[in-house]
Amino acid sequence: MLLADLHSHSTASDGLLTPIDLVLRAKRQYVTHLALTDHDEIVGLAEARAAGKACQVTVINGVELSSLWERKTVHIVGLFLNPDNLALNTALHQVRETRHTRGKKIAEKLAALGIANAWEGANHFVTNNDLISRAHFARFLVDAGYVAHQQKAFDRYLTEGKPAFVAPPWPSIAQSVATILGAGGVAVLAHPGRYHLTQTGRRRLITEFKDCGGEAIEVFSSSHTPKDNEQFVGFAHYFGLAASLGSDFHGDHSRFDLGEIPPLPDGLTPVWSLREEQFYP
Ligand code: AMP
Ligand code: MN
Ligand code: MN
Ligand code: MN
Question: What's the fold here for domain 4-91+169-279?
Fold first, then answer.
């Protein structure tokens, strides 16, 4: 039986499991095909692939690119890409630098709010010295007793419109899609239900994403409501896009475990049909 989970995170970005432990957990969850899609980072892929080989989970090379569309952060997942591609590595390096600069600014804003040493505090939770995420600041804010749980850290401080939010100059969705295509990958619009868009906005985003060369959308995601799922199945049909799905698993606190996503409905083109030779090696 095929069970694909094509969106997950490890300690190479803001996940809590090492790539090896993530793959072992996928195995326990009966996942047959796992994509590791760390934020702006691919350093975990080699370890994940090796672990997958050892326990017979097919590991798909992936990444989740922080991108901008109409001044909003939109995530583009790249699947089936060549991790040795030079332009990909250069682009990822630049985005991680942007994360570093943004992190320093977040710490300054928190300091102005009376929360000292947030940079050091967040770095205490960083598991890849090249990558800092708002999730690390959230873990610091919980640990230091400023908020009760991570969601509160976002709601009070870190999310757009809150006092420690810093608008990051991510690459445009066009640039991110081009980077993925240049590395031989398939560009997937990640959790399209998550961007606080109206119906019209959702259509506009999908249209532009497709015009840039995007080929698939996540129809099923842990951050979707059942209604979102239904709507994006319809959009995949309407726009002629392939369909992907993923838990977006980060660790024990995640709402969905690896593999806990319904199978794609009949009639949709699964994203792996675009790269059968890599999906069924
Ligand atoms: P960043 O990519 O550094 O802006 O951080 C985004 C990450 O923070 C996401 O991938 C999640 O892991 C986490 N995150 C974002 N928004 C929230 C939220 N509202 N509640 C909890 N975690 C969140
Ligand atoms: Mn994350
Ligand atoms: Mn995301
Ligand atoms: Mn993700």
Answer: TIM Barrel (3.20.20)
Fold of 99-158: DNA polymerase; domain 1 (1.10.150)
Residues 192-251 pLDDT 10s: 999 999 999 999 999 999 999 999 999 999 999 999 999 999 999 999 999 999 999 999
The structural domains of the chain, with segments of one domain joined by +, span 4-91+169-279, 99-158
Query: What single-letter DSSP state applies at residue 155?
Result: I
* 265 bridge partner residues: none
Of all protein residues, the one whose alpha carbon is nearest to atom 17 of ligand 1 is 154
Q: 4-91+169-279 and 99-158 share one CATH topology? A: no
Residue 267 CA to ligand 2 centre (angstroms)? 31
How many of the other CB atoms lie within 10 Å of CB of 12? 25
pTM above 0.85, yes or no: yes
Specify the length of the chain in residues: 281
Q: Tell me which ligand sits closest to the C-alpha of residue 8.
A: 4
Structure confidence by residue, pLDDT tens digits, 15-57: 999 999 999 999 999 999 999 999 999 999 999 999 999 999 9
CA-closest residue to ligand 1 atom 8: 135
Ligand 4 centre from 15 Cα, in Å? 9
Atom 4 in ligand 1: residue holding the nearest Cα? 134
- Residues with C-beta less than 6 Å from any ligand 1 atom: 14, 39, 66, 133-135, 150-151, 154, 159, 250
Amino acid making up residue 127: T
Phi and psi torsions of 68, nearest 5°: -115, 135
Report the alpha-carbon distance of residue 31 to residue 258 in Å, rounded: 7
